[in-house]
Amino acid sequence: MWKWVILVLVVMLGLLQYRLWFGEGGIHEFNDIQARADVLEGTTQTLKARNDRLAAEVVDLKTGLDAIEERARSDIGMVRKDEQFFWVPDVDASHGPAAETGVITP
């Protein structure tokens, strides 16, 4: 009699273990969800850093003229009235500060 009770209990324990490891809501599903959450968290951190940089740039553009001047120089090549712009073809921009902007202040 006790043999059957023990056997039934062992089988039930095995079935419960099977559901824990392989069933719906088990360990494998938990690991899959955890991996997806980690990937999403990494993406979120990247996007948050980008948003922070953009927010800082917006504040800088709203408050200071230096950022506006820098954007105008780099994006559309603007030069101030008291500067001269010399463009030399086939020269890379790693030869100094004047080569980076192409602008020489007298």
Tell me what you see in this structure.
- This protein is mainly alpha-helical.
- It contains four helices and two strands.
- It has helices at 2-22, 27-63, 65-76, 97-101, and strands at residues 84-85, 103-104.
- It has a two-stranded antiparallel sheet.
- The longest helix is centred in the middle third of the chain and has 37 residues, at 27-63.
- The radius of gyration is 33 Å and the shape is rod-shaped.
- The N and C termini lie far apart (106 Å).
- The relative contact order is 0.05.
- The model has no long low-confidence stretch (mean pLDDT 80).
Termini Cα gap: 106 Å
Strand order of the largest sheet: 1-2
> How many beta-strand runs?
2
User: Which stretches are low in confidence, meaning pLDDT under 50 for 5 or more residues running?
Assistant: none
The shape, in one word, is rod-shaped
- As a percent range, the share of strand residues is under 5%
| Main structural class | mainly alpha
Radius of gyration: 33 Å
Topology as a string of helices (H) and strands (E):
HHHEHE
* Proportion of residues in helical segments: over 70%
Number of helices: 4
Q: On the 0-100 scale, what is the average pLDDT?
A: 80
Largest sheet: 2 strands, antiparallel
Q: In a few lines, what is going on in this structure?
A:
This protein is mainly alpha-helical. It has helices at 2-22, 27-63, 65-76, 97-101; strands at residues 84-85, 103-104.
